[in-house]
Amino acid sequence: MRSPSQMKIIQLELTNACEKACSNCTRLVGHVRNPWFMTKEQFERAVKSMDGWDAPGRVLGAMGGNPVLHPLFAELAHMFAALWGRKTPPRGRGPIKDFGAYVNTRLGDTSSGRGLWSSMGPRFYHHLETIQDVFSYWVINDHENAGLHQGLLIERAEFNELNGQSDDQWLENRDKCWVQMDWSASINPRGAYFCEVAAAIDDLFFEGKSAWPVEAGWWKRTPADFESQLHLCDHCALAQRGPSAVSHDEVDIVGRTSLPLIQAVGSKAKVEIYDPQNIPEQQENGREYRIDWYMRDPAAGELLRRVGPSNRDTFARSTTAVMVSVGYGPELEFTLPHNLGLVDHVVVVTTPEDVVTQAVCSQYPTVTVIASERCYANQCAFNKGALMNDALMGAQQLWKLDWVIFTDADVLLHPRLPSLMNGWTLNPGVLYYTKRKDILREDVAAWRAGEFVRFAPPSGHNHEASGYFQLFNRLAQATRDRWPAPLSEMFPSAGGVDWHWQAQWPVAKKIYLPEIEVTHLVHSATFGQRWNGPPQGPDQNSWRQMGTIVGTRDGKAAIGIFDREMRDSFEGCEVRIINMKNEAMHAMDWPAGGKFPAEVVSYNPKTNSLIFLGRDTGAPDLYVAYREKS
Question: Which end of the chain is more exposed for a tag (fewer CB within 10 A), N or C?
Answer without folding.
Answer: C
